Amino acid sequence: MVRDLDRLGETEFDLVVVGGGVYGVCAAWRAALNGLTACVIERDDFGGATSSNSLKVIHGGLRYLQHLDLRRMRESIRERSLLIRMAPHLVSPLPFVIPTYGHGVKGREILGLALRVNDLVSWDRNRGLARERNLPPGRMLSRAEMLERFPGIREDGLTGGALWYDGLSYDSGRLLLAFLESALRAGAAAANYIEATGFVERDRTVTGVLARDAQTGRDLVLRSRMVLNAAGPWVDDVLGRLSSSPETRAFHRSKAINLVTRQLFPDVALGLQGPARFRDTDAALDKGFRLFFVVPWRSHSLIGTRHFPSDAEPDALEVSAAEIDTFLDEINAAYPPARLSATDVVGVYRGMLPRDAGTSATEEVQLEKHPLVIDHERDHGIRGLMTVVGVKWTTGRLVAFETVDRICRKLGRADGRDGLAPPLAGSPGADVVTFVERGLAAAPRGLPRESALHVLRCYGTASAEIFRLAAEDPSLGRPVVEGSAVIGAQIVHAVRAEMALHLDDVVFRRTDLGTAAGLGPADLEAGVKLMGHESGWGADRQRREIDATLASLSSFRSGRRRQVNP
Predict the structure, then answer these.
(1) Residue 451: which residues within 8 A CB-CB, separation 6 or more?
(2) Which of 52, 285, 462, 524: CA 20 to 30 A from 73?
(3) How far apart are CA 149 and CA 34, in angstroms?
């Protein structure tokens, strides 16, 4: 992946996408697949904001049954299967369990019926998948099985459990990068750390984007026939740079958090009932509570998602210690053996999700259920501009593709309804087991098996390049941090081939070093030296990079805003 600013300034694009989260990256990929000249720019790093706040679950929409929304179920089921097929090294099935109590909406009868309907609606869920990636049918668990699997679970009224399978992303950041690499291979351009500062406008027609490179201060003019605003919680800020911006808000904010904690369950996700009464205003069958899930991820648990009212500016988003304590108390009340405290929290993923426009920013959060696509020509008389606001990771590809198909029709180009889901860059094909076995056999001598397996899971076929670097320089085959599987070759590869411009990019988005226990200044020295050698950084720059990354680590661990001392 090459960050070519000259190309951005010299090309007249069919489409410029503002925002490098999953929706923006997938939009650029779709445009390139459809034969459009396209680019995507991101103010910070790709996938570094809302898209990073992920529970890693690629879900098939079982919860939509309570809304009787079979269309959304089918969309989610299809996208889940496609993602498992498109990136089988990064997405795999995982069992999920919800305990059942009594004989009402939380009982065996209702949940058993839900599983049967889910299996009927997802009758084709395993089409095109290798056997080891199949999602088995759901089934009911007995009370005894639940007590054996989850000792200490609340027993009063317990009648059993409902088990089904969804998808789990091994690394959602790497999955987004696979989308990005696929977009660039199809002909798109991309650049991170490029901020959209305004629009090129003429007679209420947008003909491009004014931008600035945060690395050099260079101003750019990106000319285009269409612009897609996919800036997530910042979409209204971007629209505010129009000479005549819409008066209505496109994104009504709420806060969402997911906690990374010590691991509670190694191989199954458990759904737990939040203690607070919650009424889903548009559900046909209201459960009366929110579910959150304890999801196994690497050697940790991911727990979420907890929603809080918030109308803060996206750049000012932070999670208070009181909010974290509230969530921990709820987890411990729902599953007392957890006994989680603040010291068990490895990190706090946070972001903003769109709430229902008809609800207040101060009341219990009702999330927006459907993505929003705004045609500004139709709605505001501004030609050449569209905005998309997504609601979840699983259907990001689908919504972005459908949005670009509308743009294609506006440009008089055929949309690409065929070939919706080619394999992503790095995909090893359906037989992941054989791929991993051969990859482990081909790994350089001396490379720890855990690291080799980690590389194969993260990079797929691109792992050959990581292995080559480690074979040429055995020092690059050693783990960067004790207790982590990440090796030096991954850092070198991130700089050379993945647009990693800062140490922060490597620690949090090109690798998972950010979740390594006890990661501190001494641990970052090795990484910054590798990046410094590749990027020509002197001692002062290396120290600034370490300081900035330490600030990001503090922010991740505490949920507070990132601050770097001058």
Answers:
(1) 477, 479, 485, 486, 487
(2) 52
(3) 49
| Residue 345: closest CA among 527, 515, 211, 183 | 515
**Residue written as tokens 């098939």?**
60
- Residue 215 CB neighbours (<10 A): 14
What sign does the CA torsion over 321, 323, 327, 332 have? positive
Domains defined along the chain, listed by start: 5-51+173-251+369-410 (3.50.50.60), 92-167+252-354 (3.30.9.10), 432-558 (1.10.8.870)
Structure tokens at 129: 């998948």
Cα-trace Rg, the chain: 23
Name the DSSP letter for residue 130. Answer: -
Q: How far apart are CA 426 and CA 334, in angstroms?
A: 40
Cα distances (angstroms) measured from residue 305 to each of 129, 429, 461, 495 = 29, 32, 32, 33
Strand pairing class (269-273; 91-101): parallel
DSSP string, 451-491: HHHHHHHHHGGGHHHHHHHHHH-GGGGSBSSTT---BHHHH
pLDDT digits (tens, 9 = 90+) for 457-488: 999 999 999 999 999 999 999 999 988 999 99
The per-residue pLDDT for range 533-555, each reduced to its tens digit, is 999 999 999 999 999 999 999 99
Mention every residue, 6+ apart, whose C-beta is less than 8 A from residue 332.
338, 339, 340
pLDDT digits (tens, 9 = 90+) for 168-183: 999 999 999 999 999 9
The helices-and-strands tally (H runs, E runs) of the chain is 17, 17
Which residues are paired to 228 by β-bridges? 17, 386
pTM score, whole prediction: 0.96
List of residues 6+ apart from 438 with CB closer than 8 A: none
Question: What is the 3-state secondary structure of 230-281?
Answer: CCHHHHHHHHCCCCCCCCCCCCCEEEEEEEEEECCCCCCEEEEECCCCCCCC
- Check residue 247 and give its pLDDT: 86
